[in-house]
Amino acid sequence: DPLPSALLTIFHGTPYIQKLHSYGSRDIEAPALVLIQPIAYVLIGNGLYEEAIHHFSTMLQLISIIFQDIKNAELALFELNRVINLAPDHPEVFEQRAEILSSLGRISEALTDITKAIQLKHSAQLYRHRGILYFISEDYATANEDFQNSLELNKNQPTVMLYKGLSFFHRGLLKEAIEIFKEAVKQKSDFIDAYKSLGQAYRELGNFEAAAENFQKALMLNQNHVQTIQLKGNMFYHHGSLDEALKNFKRCLQIEPYNEVCQYMKGLSHVAMGQFYEGIKAQTKVMLNDPLPGQTASAEYLKVKYFREYSRYLHAHLDIPVVEYNIDADLPGKFKDHWVKNLPFLIEDYEEQPGLQPNIKDVQLHKFENYKSSVQEMICVANHLGSLMQYETVGFLPNKRMHRAMGLAVLEVMQAVQRTWVNSKVRMNGKTKLMQWRDMFDIAVKWRRIADPDQPVLWLDQIPAQSLRRGFNNHINLIRGQFINMRYTEYFDNILHFIKDRILVYHSANDHKELLEVREALEQVHKVEDLLPIMKQLNSKTRDGFTIHTKVPSLKNPGKEYDGFTVTLTGNRIGNLLFSVETQTAEARTQLYHTEIDALYKDLTMKGKTHLLSAEPRETDVICNLILSVLYYFCNLMPLSRGSSMVAYSIIMGALMASGQEVSGKIPKGKVCSSYMYCFCILHLCPKCSLRIFYIAKVASLVLY
After folding, report:
1. What residues contact residue 258 under an 8 Å CB cut-off, 6+ apart?
2. What is the pTM of this model?
3. Which of 258, 205, 263 lies closest to 235 in space, CA to CA?
């Protein structure tokens, strides 16, 4: 029977109902609340306490929703706490409180509530909710488990399928992510985010064609989907297709004029094409987008000031032959130091580069067919040589612009080395002089800079001495937390074997019984992740991690060793692991390596001159060994801020061609040049090892001439 209107009137004057009527937008819930509270009191009067509690709980949930809608989260939490005190066995209340807590950034509390809700009731929705919270917390493995549990309870959830794929993607498990994204688009054929994510996964995998196809599918569903346009443009830029990249960034800015990433990339694309006026104009727009107080500056904002100054420098030198200027000598030391470290642009007494001069015109782009046949032939040869540097492994997108640039570097290195062996002197930086090893490397460095002006490719020993004394770290994360760097998984077993060997050497001073225990424990370790617990058992000093240092034997001073690389393994549990390889380029270490390279290069020049006058095959082997020795010490030193491996490989190819040999094969599938160097440093350079091991392996597996 309907309740008497008088009873409704009595409870209509409560503070909650008054509050409710001050928010007239909730038309549906208002009448419900007017009825629920008096009904609950009537039920109490009749001794029906359980039913009354249920009505009060419902009423308070509705009130909390209203407070949440008006962004009064604390009041919403207060009301939900009251509900839980009255009825602690309702999972939906815990879920609602978790939603509010997560919106306040209190993720761990939200997880506790959702876990309690799941204990009360297993449902696809609750597992999905908890999975998303774990995903936000970057605990992707646990999130994946919850998404899987949700899908087992309800298979037809394309959004959950997308999240599951993303939980693989963010752990570096790209192939697994791709399969899940494919399942998501099967469930929902118009799922734009799934196509976009599929495209990005293929792009990270290095599959340009598949990535472009899926980005296009997303745009066919929504031609104005900004994130897809941005990702597609970024992919085209790193594929070396600057025209296509520029089209996408312009389209992105038409839809979203204040998109900082697209604005920055538009400026970068223009500058890379030699269009400095448009490029610097776009950079300036990014500079003017200052972060608000308390807001973290974007990566683009941090980079753009340096890039604009570098762009101005390049424009001012457009009409000067590239051999007659040098950014390592011309740019201020503090500028280079801050640029390499990607620090905020706070440089005292910095004098800006000159603005654009109207008498210096932008670079004019020519069609391939307009070049002379000899130039066309050279470009084709460069394209081929550069393509031989492409890594046939996961994670490396082919970049035809980079291939062409480094192919041209190979040809110029070959010509310069040949001239040196014939005439001794070459023209470098505006002067005619004897070519030193640094001059040879500068050729490749110049082309690497041209290929991508976004990256500061600088000689670290040209940084201010004060900064160099503190050292620069060239660092590669192999495993960080739950993320596995798929580019280098080919080397994990080799590095693990090396670590085991060094641990045995470390414990070799122990008595035979202890050494046997160590050996038996290490035999049970088959993955890097399993090593830390074992080390903690073997050595209390290990605590949460350890480092292993490699030593590089000197050829110039037999018996002497230099600091090589450092392998670091830290963490206290699975999922909180850091496995990395790094080298620190400090001043004293740099000088030692320079001495070694100086001696080897001098010997190489002498042998090169002799080789031109001799047809002895033995001389060719000697020259090959010397070239590889120079590059071996260069790669252990890691003297550049970026691009050391690409520069090194182009030097190998160019110098070998100068000696009459030709690199005709690609880098073996699954191998990475930089990581290859790392692993040879690690695996073949104990004090008793011979460098010949390195030579044979390099010639057979890497150079393939």
Report:
1. 289
2. 0.83
3. 205
